[in-house]
Request: fold
Amino acid sequence: MELSQTALITELGRCAVELATGAAEFVGTRTGGEQHISSKTTATDLVTDTDRATEEWIMGYLARRRPDDAILGEEGEGREGNSGVRWVIDPIDGTVNFVLGIPMYAVSIAAEIGGRSVAAAVVNPVSGELFRATLGAGAYATGGAFGGERRLTGPRDVPLERAVLGTGFGYDRDRRARQAALTARLLPQIADIRRLGSAALDICAVAAGRLDGYFEVGLNPWDHAAAVLIAREAGALAVGPKGREPDAALTVVGGTQLMARLPGLLDELGIDAVL
Ligand code: IPD
Ligand code: CA
Reply:
């Protein structure tokens, strides 16, 4: 990799941390107040004024700091660019938790070059935990239970039978029924399941060794773009359908022993038919 590319990635990493930290502070100033809540793709897919205002805050920051970059945002505040860099942002991942006051939601920010994440930051505004990574330079966490800066080393390397896996369910009721049926078939073959309510924090939990693995069908790019880089830089493996890159059809993350069996098992259990 050329030095200029390395320097660019370092700069994008700095920018991702500033953005995620600043946006998390912004979310914090609006927590506890009355939220205006509406729905998006289905009646249970919620969006609040804070999701939208936070995305606008992020857009404003990028307009000043990186005016030539493209942006893809969950709340539709996208823009084209001409620099070859694209920001993929989720102002609040875990909006339902935010609405309910469950302290498991996060600002998720990724910078991509050529469609590949090269810098990422995920911040939980309540715990103050920051997860960050840049391509080839490792993953780190600070704040909350981490205290000072800690290098992340990925999940325990346990076999399928001992693995505690995170997962999630989408907002379409027919798909949720298929997701639940597949999870019921998987559960006897693993140690246990957790459904925390934020894909970005689930995948960062794998990076930090708090979960052994994670899988979900139907994620959007802003749910996983940052956290998958963080998990990989921590040493975890991440794949999508048939060993391809994680995508809207499937995201599977975990340690070596788990990943030798989980993607194949999900195929056998009919993951193809869940989307
Ligand atoms: C959702 C969360 C949830 C996952 C859903 C996502 P949102 O994102 O990450 O954990 O199961 O698939 O859509 O709607 O809170 O930004
Ligand atoms: Ca999300």
